[in-house]
Amino acid sequence: MAGIFISYRRDDSQGFAGRLADDLIEILGPDLVFRDVEIPAGYDFTEVLTRAVAACDVLLVVIGRNWRAPSADTAKSRLFDPADWVRAEIEAAFDQGSMSLPYWWPAQICVGQQKCRKVLPTCQNCRLSR
Predict the structure, then answer these.
(1) Which DSSP symbol is given to 105?
(2) What residue spans define the domains of the chain?
(3) Whether residue 106 has a cis bond before it, omega within 30° of 0
(4) Cα–Cα distances in Å, from 46 out to 36, 64, 124, 127?
(5) Tens of pLDDT along 86-96?
(6) Residues 58-83: pLDDT tens digits?
(7) What b/e readout covers 80-107, taking b as 16+ CB neighbours within 10 angstroms?
(8) Burial of 13 by CB count in 10 Å (0-12 exposed, 13-18 middle, 19+ buried)?
(9) How much is the average pLDDT of 39-65?
(10) Distance CA 130, CA 128 (A)
(11) Distance CA 92, CA 54 (A)
């Protein structure tokens, strides 16, 4: 299973997460990188994601401009919804003690985004560029 699990919001950073996955696969190989698009048709999405998070050494959380945007149903951020996939992935990684790395994309958004930083309060983050 994957050593790096890429967590992202499809409506926020899907294209970037895909390019990041491609780059990591090129460097580390396909067996060490997981992204949800790798789930084959017919498989239980929840079960596969749960196993992939459990098997990862690092949860790479891609945080885009709208990462903490409110859900369509409420004015609250989706991160407050227990059924939110991104929240579930982060909580599972924290529970099992996996390293969780916030990846701010684009890098400029991390300046002044204190509300986003409260979600991952104790995780060291850094700017990466290629």
Answers:
(1) S
(2) 4-117
(3) yes
(4) 10, 23, 28, 31
(5) 888 888 888 88
(6) 999 888 877 777 777 777 788 788 88
(7) ebeebbbbbbbebbeeeebebbbbbbee
(8) buried
(9) 88
(10) 7
(11) 7
